[in-house]
Design brief:
single chain, mainly beta, six-stranded antiparallel beta sheet, four-stranded antiparallel beta sheet, 58% strand
């Protein structure tokens, strides 16, 4: 299943069950998610192409193609593409993030 997420990001749902979600996403240059957290889901991001910047609990991490990062439940975070190139990655969540995303207004 394909859908367009926030900031014109392409997303493909590769697997979605109550215990596991696997998505492939593309983020255009200069875009970012909104700050949020998940009550139950742990997330694992694997960068396929480009370079991602993750803000996790107010700490920044740069993750390049071939690298990965895990985000624990209840961690405030967002991913951004601060480069001039498209970013492509896999995001694997356990359990699924369906109805488990709380956006934070700042």
């Amino acid at each position: 299943m394909h859908y367009i997420g926030g900031n014109s990001c392409d997303s493909w749902v590769l697997n979605d069950s109550c215990n596991l979600s696997v998505k492939q996403e593309k983020m255009p240059a200069g875009t970012a998610e909104k700050l949020h957290f998940h009550e139950a889901a742990e997330q694992f991001f694997y960068i396929l192409r480009g370079e991602a910047v993750f803000d996790i609990n107010n700490e920044k991490f740069s993750v390049k193609a071939g690298e990965s990062i895990s985000i624990q439940p209840k961690s405030e975070h967002f991913i951004s593409n601060e480069s001039l190139d498209e970013l492509e990655f896999l995001v694997i969540s356990s359990p699924s993030t369906n109805n488990d995303r709380i956006e934070i207004e700042k």
